[in-house]
Amino acid sequence: MGIVNSICGAVIDVFFAPFQAMGPWPGMIAISLVTGVLMLLIFKKTSNQAAIKRAKNQIKARLLEIRLFKNDTGGQFRSQGAMLAANARYMAHALRPMLVMIIPVMLILAQLNLRYGASSLDKGEQALVKMKLAKGTSAEATPISLQAPAGITVETPPLRIEEEGEVDWRIRADSPGLRRLIFDVAGTAVDKSVSVGQAAPAKVATLRSRKFFDLFLTPGEKPMPKNVPVTSIEVIHPSYSLPLFGGGVNWLVAFFILSLVFGFALKGVFKVEI
Description:
Immunoglobulin-like, 2 domains, alpha+beta, 22% strand
């Protein structure tokens, strides 16, 4: 999974490079446009376009029958049943391309979450650092320490929660930059990034883990080394919202709306039956 994340991250980095200095919206609009076109092409190549068109026409015909013969109760039921059957056929034909889309769209979503999911810490802002220990590793008995780089202050000693297998610290951001916290766990070193003062769409990796699902959803860091008795380290960054009319909108909402708008707007250009 780490190799896949590295390749996808490099591709998205190149894509976002021209938009980096323009603020968060240009890059979001551009990636939504590309995703909309990608979904159209996948849908066209992996679906039975003739069958989908036929099913859509049958649905329209049954709707027309229902309106024309509204006084014929028996005909109404027959038309509704035929319409449901046509709709079921349409859904069945659309299922395969939707399944094919899942993987590339999820990879794109993971990369976007890295750039739009969390805000970089502001100067003077505090954050919680949470270390989850591997099963069987004692939070109280295991020697664990945290060394902060210049620009980060560790404000509290480690809080050891034995029942949860967790060790927590509170840190404070002092100066902008991408910093790395260094942890010593029973004589083995492991690090975790902290983003300070970087404008969106900066990469803010909130979690470093070794679990497959975590690696898929949070691709910003290398997998946690296997020789360290730690499953994950998380820095709690504030969530980020795209600025809109004096307020904010979640990036996922903006991405899906824009992708769907571009997809439906361009389906005629690419001659795709949806």
